[in-house]
Write a structure and sequence with these properties.
By secondary structure, the chain is of the alpha/beta class. The chain has two domains: 214 residues, Rossmann fold; 211 residues, Rossmann fold. It is 47% helix and 10% strand. The strands form two sheets. It has a six-stranded parallel β-sheet with strand order 2-1-3-4-5-6. A five-stranded parallel β-sheet has the order 9-8-7-10-11, with helices on both faces. It starts with 11 loop residues before the first strand and ends with a helix. 45% of the residues are buried. The N terminus is likely disordered.
Length: 443
């Protein structure tokens, strides 16, 4: 039984992402808000603040309750101190304090303490690749002890080979009402973690597949604003990725990745296409002090990866002003999807934009090899639409691009044919989440 909700009460839902790069999770945030609001029209949605702020406020809260002296915390590692507190301390506090007294004065103060439900929209936050979710478990602990709903929306999971990762992932997941994997690989990792989790597990596509973008006319406006002349032929989207570009950097030599992307752009220009170069990842506004970063500014200066710098550099190297534009502004997920709706093909790497393209029937060609892309494309029966650009010669990359381009109409039809069932699967997760929340309200 969930104790935190009551009949007639507005439900405060915290959309949590422990990796705290909100811009990268924006499509999920907006899609979930759009879909869940239909079931809970009076819901207030909140985004989790930056984890360091959460940690400091949690730490302060613990000290204020007198659980341990401040001096003890100061001489211990952050995570170890919180672990030393144990469940009994938090449980004792939750047990005799009323809910109204738990509500902090600002959203930055332990948001899990005053949310009526937490919906986690992380990307791949739990597993050996990301480290032990010890801090995440502790951030959820006070909330979970009030037995309010905790749902993990579709995301990548595992592996869980490291003992610390297994221990705290299991503690965290045991608190959950629903745990969704977005691919079969992740689902198997979860099943192998504990058989007790199986009743809570669900396989569903990324919730971003349900995002309702703006009118495609808005996409036309954005392209024209960026400098794209009214195209006489097809428009293709290119997505260079800074992370891959930096891996390919060799001091004193040309960047192999950028040269390959230039070759791909040149191929489309020869075919009479216009090109919109768009970022797959944008740093959060708080971590980037420019709306339109100029070409030549290294991404390391942002503090986080921001592909707009590379987009501007690629546009400059391709030239052809009026036929090649870089989208260097800060557009939300709905605007980005409106731009993609005007494309005939999307080439590059950027998970959110690839999902948007698939949801619109726009053929993508992923220029990166990873199981996340493989599983996503397998869902649409399009496993061949991903190639490892880093390991391929330029001629092989161009051959894959040309083949996809020639088959784009067939690929689009095949995508649109299976899309309704995929969206139905994603919608079922939203409905199940709504049932959990509504069931809590009625108790």
């Amino acid at each position: 039984m969930h104790a935190g909700l009551s009949i007639g009460k507005i439900v405060n839902i915290l959309l949590n992402d422990w990796q705290h790069c909100f811009k990268a999770r924006e499509p999920r945030f907006l899609a979930l808000q759009q879909q869940l609001s239909r079931h809970l029209p009076e819901t207030t949605f909140m985004a989790v603040p930056d984890p360091p702020a959460v940690y400091e406020s949690t730490r302060q809260w613990i000290v204020e309750q007198g659980f341990v002296p401040a001096a003890y915390i100061d001489r211990k590692a952050k995570e170890d101190v919180l672990l030393d507190l144990g469940i009994s301390f938090v449980q004792r506090f939750i047990g005799y304090k009323r809910h109204s007294e738990l509500k902090p004065t600002t959203p930055n103060d332990v948001p899990q303490m005053w949310a009526d439900a937490v919906l986690d929209i992380s990307d791949e936050g739990f597993g050996d690749r990301s480290g032990a979710p010890k801090t995440v478990w502790l951030r959820q602990l006070p909330f979970a002890l009030r037995r309010n709903p905790l749902v993990f929306l579709p995301q990548a999971w595992g592996p869980f080979e490291k003992s610390g990762v297994r221990k705290y992932s299991l503690r965290l997941l045991n608190m959950a009402d629903l745990i969704c994997a977005r691919d079969n690989v992740s689902l198997e990792y979860l099943k192998n973690l504990s058989t007790d989790l199986e009743p809570k597990l669900a396989l569903a596509p990324d919730i971003a597949i349900l995002l309702e973008g703006l009118d495609p006319k808005e996409g036309v406006r954005i392209l024209r604003e960026a400098g794209l002349e009214t195209p006489a032929g097809p428009v293709v989207g290119l997505m260079p990725e800074t992370r891959i570009h930096e891996r390919a950097r060799v001091p004193g030599d040309e960047n192999a990745y950028l040269k390959k992307m230039e070759a791909v752009g040149g191929l489309f220009l020869e075919a009479g296409c216009s090109i919109a170069i768009m970022p797959g990842q944008i740093a959060d506004r708080a971590q980037w002090n420019r709306t339109s970063p100029p070409a030549g500014v290294e991404s390391e200066q942002t503090g986080r990866t921001d592909d707009r710098v590379l987009c501007s550099a690629l546009a400059e190297s391709l030239g052809r002003k009026g036929s090649v534009v870089a989208l260097a502004g800060e557009y939300d997920a709905g605007q980005t999807k409106a731009v993609i709706a005007n494309l005939d093909m999307l080439v590059g790497s950027g998970y959110n934009n690839i999902i948007a393209a698939l949801s619109l029937g726009v053929p993508p060609l992923v220029l990166e090899s990873s199981f996340e892309y493989d599983e996503l494309l397998r869902m649409f029966n399009q496993q061949g639409l991903a190639v490892d650009l880093e390991k391929m010669e330029t001629s092989a990359v161009l051959s894959a691009v040309e083949k996809t381009w020639q088959q784009r109409e067939r690929i689009s039809k095949e995508i649109l044919q299976v899309l309704p069932d995929i969206q139905k699967s994603a919608s079922s997760v939203v409905e199940r989440t709504a049932e959990i929340l509504l069931g809590s309200v009625s108790k």
